[in-house]
Amino acid sequence: MENVNFVVQLLKSDECVTLMAHAEVSKAELIDEAIRQGEIEEDERECFDKAEFCANKWMKAVPRAGYSTYYYESREGVRGAFKATCLQYLW
């Protein structure tokens, strides 16, 4: 089994596409790991390289009707919260 540096998820909504790392990493590290894990293709790199919104923040996942999992911004110390790097671009 391949070693995973950190978990990356590709999240899509009607307005935007978000790459989320379950870790505090750089934009380049996030994109490289997303490609390595198969979340995005190499030809999608440019879209994420040009993305202007990149933030390190506390997130929390909760089950919610209509979503497999819903993520929202949280804060340190909240049970189940994790540090994440989010890279986002609008459709």
Automatic annotation (TrEMBL):
Domain of life: Bacteria
Protein name: Uncharacterized protein
